[in-house]
Design a protein that fits this description.
Number of strands: 8
Structural class: alpha/beta
Strand order of the largest sheet: 3-2-1-6-7-8
Number of domains: 1
Bound molecules: magnesium ion
Low-confidence stretches: none
Shape: globular
Oligomer: single chain
CATH architecture: 3-Layer(aba) Sandwich
Distance between the termini: 7 Å
Number of helices: 10
CATH topology: Rossmann fold
CATH superfamily: HAD superfamily/HAD-like
Strand content: 15-25%
Radius of gyration: 16 Å
CATH class: Alpha Beta
Length: 214
């Protein structure tokens, strides 16, 4: 018996221990890294809406194709401890798994493959390049660049309930009204406001398996 039929995962600082955009910003030097990390943290704390910081960060970092591929490898390398085993077990039990992220889709797909999450169940923001692999922009119309974007996305996915959402940031908290439960994941970052909003708090993926399958 499982308590949930579907699980929606955040990616950055949940399934993998990095914030993708901050990792890319670090390629531009420590100052850009610090600037980006401050904006990311404000957005994840809910002090600033994500749409206010998204374009600013991308415009400054302008990641090229090779850097996105490098980031893809980094996501896999920094995969959360026991996440592989947990997701494999949950899939075996017939639970539908999806990833919903404000991160860059092309960088997240290798992680999805590694975790056995179908590409069609990965919702993230696309990034565009020219023929030489230079950055030309990102999908500015994506709902996932907006504060309540995850909520609308999850609603439209039409997953089978009961649904559990798992994440570390305020944009994950926003999903709560359209799912049965929200679990704050504190394995990488612990935020008081997110914990306050959560039905459950889990600090590792063994606890997730236990929560879902008990
Ligand atoms: Mg996150």
């Amino acid at each position: 018996m499982s308590r949930f039929k579907s699980i929606v995962f955040d990616v950055d600082s949940t399934l993998s221990g990095i914030e993708g955009i901050d990792w890319l910003a670090a390629l531009r030097g420590p100052e850009t890294r610090a600037w980006s990390a401050t904006l990311t943290e404000k957005a994840m704390q809910g002090e600033m809406p994500i749409e206010a910081v998204y374009g600013q960060r991308m415009q400054k970092v302008r990641p090229n194709k090779a850097e996105i591929e490098q980031l893809g490898r980094e996501y896999v390398e920094r995969i959360a401890p026991r996440a592989r085993e947990a997701l494999a077990e949950l899939r075996t039990r017939g639970i539908e798994l999806a990833m919903v992220s404000g991160g860059l889709r092309e960088a997240i797909l290798p992680l999805a493959r590694e975790l056995g999450v179908d590409e069609r169940s990965v919702y993230a923001v696309s990034v565009f390049f020219d023929e030489e692999g230079k950055y030309v922009g990102f999908d500015e119309r994506s709902l996932l660049t907006q504060q309540n974007g995850k909520r609308i996305t999850v609603l439209e996915m039409g997953l089978q309930g009961p649904i559990l959402a798992v994440g570390d940031g305020m944009t994950d908290c926003e999903i709560k009204p359209v799912v049965e439960s929200f679990a704050a994941f504190t394995g990488f970052t612990r935020r008081a406001r997110v914990i306050e909003c959560a039905d459950f708090v889990i600090e590792n993926f063994d606890q997730l398996t236990e929560l879902v399958l008990k």
